[in-house]
Design a protein that fits this description.
By secondary structure, the protein is mainly α. It has one domain. Helix content is 80%, strand content 0%.
Length: 200
């Protein structure tokens, strides 16, 4: 039936099939996450003020200032990760390919791993280092007061946190590459089948 009543949905379906339906919203999501990362230092500062960190002994205030500078640095680094990747996610798949959502999701997994690894490796290492040197076991007090209770102290974590960060990036990259490899194989197989199915 070739009339407007039955065909008005076709442009929407074409938009989905081309892949823009998946790529563009993910680009917007990356932008939002990038901006949120810029707000993280403000949230940490507000938590510290609310919990009276600046009324604690001087060594706590000093370590907090050091940690805050690291948080600001990692937030800026994280912003750049998501901001840079937002353009790349729009070219993860080509028009006409059968599997277009999987590469986009794969890209999200990879970017998330890079982001998480940066926070674990850099902030985790820095907090463990500064708190071990200046605070010792009292460091647990500070991590809770600044809204980051998962941060650990001690020589062991000075060593482990960069390793955890690296392994996080590798693990998520591995997952992303599995998805991409499967998608590439599937698209290649489809093209080969289409070639052989062409009338001679």
């Amino acid at each position: 039936m070739d009339n407007v009543f039955f065909n008005f949905i076709k442009p929407v379906l074409a938009f989905i099939d081309k892949g823009d339906f998946f790529r563009k919203p993910f680009g917007w999501l990356y932008t939002i996450i990038a901006v949120i990362n810029l707000i993280i230092p403000i949230a940490v500062l507000v938590a510290a003020i609310d919990n009276n960190v600046f009324r604690m002994p001087g060594k706590f205030v000093f370590v907090f200032i050091l940690i805050f500078l690291v948080v600001a640095f990692v937030s800026w680094l994280s912003f750049q990760i998501w901001w840079d990747r937002r353009d790349k996610v729009t070219i993860t798949s080509k028009e006409g390919e059968e599997f277009i959502a999987t590469p986009v999701f794969s890209h999200l997994i990879q970017t998330f791993g890079e982001w998480l690894g940066a926070w674990i490796g850099i902030l985790g290492f820095s907090f463990a280092l500064f708190s071990t040197i200046f605070l010792g076991e009292e460091a647990r007090l500070l991590s809770g007061q600044i809204g980051l209770p998962f941060l650990e102290t001690g020589i062991l974590f000075i060593i482990l946190m960069p390793i955890y960060g690296f392994l996080t990036v590798v693990f998520f990259r591995f997952l992303a590459e599995i998805f991409r490899a499967l998608t590439s194989l599937a698209n290649t197989a489809k093209r080969q089948l289409s070639y052989f199915e062409k009338p001679k």
